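Ligand-bound model needed. guanine.
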Amino acid sequence: MGAIIMSGREVAAEIKGELKQKVAKFNREFSQPVLTVILVGNDPASETYVKAKGKAAAEVGIRSFLIRFPEDVSQAELIHKIEQLNKDPEVNGLLVQLPLPRHIDVQSVIDAIDPRKDVDGFHPLNVGRMQVGKKAFIPCTPFGILSLLKRYKIEIQGKHAVIVGHSHIVGRPMAALLLNENATVSVCHVYTKNLKEITTMADILIVAVGKKHLITSDMVKPGSVVIDVGINREENRLFGDCDFESIKHIASYITPVPGGVGPMTISMLLYNTFDAVQSQMKELTRV
Ligand code: GUN
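Prediction:
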């Protein structure tokens, strides 16, 4: 018996369809939501992601702008632009595509973004609010994974979720979200000594490290749910962090690469952007 393939592509299209209707209504009654993306340099992967974000925004009726800076832009200039965009009432959502060049301190740049426009959910205020289970912008990839688990009606409460990778973009926020759902959560990373011992305990295994086929079938518990966040490019082909072909015979659910988590991430960015514009409108009309 093989695993059910979780189609992020299909679920993401459903979410976009729902959003498109809501955005159209909002646009008729108020204005068109605006997402602004800042891209520094010409990293090919970032170029691809930014293009995909712009295309998906257009599909649901969100206007998007791309602001480009050269690789050698100064941190001060970048932050100055963010401060301008924070003040611009026409900008509802704002994100800086990562990674940034080494001479720029990423956290200082994230800290400069108005938390009310922080549709990536990376600002410390949103990170903290999410930790305590209050309303916050949730980082798009973990938010997409949670939405995918829910759409496939996968039970989370009481399950052992193992996350491989402790990044600020995926692993850490994923752990917080799953804890909020009452899972038992283990987080493994590059310094974990007994990785296989821990991954084989997982009812839900989420892998986000960026290492082709790090997880092989002997590291997976039979019947578990495997979520692969990896996007590893090799000779114009994409590979996940999990060896899909062998694991699909063991797991009960598995996400493919491509067509799994990736499309979900973008849909959640659009979801967050619409959430931002609605909150901002409420703030404006509050008496
Ligand atoms: N680079 C990789 N993932 C992301 C993301 O979710 N947001 C931003 N801004 N940059 C990224």
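Residues 140-262 form a domain with the Rossmann fold fold (CATH 3.40.50.720).
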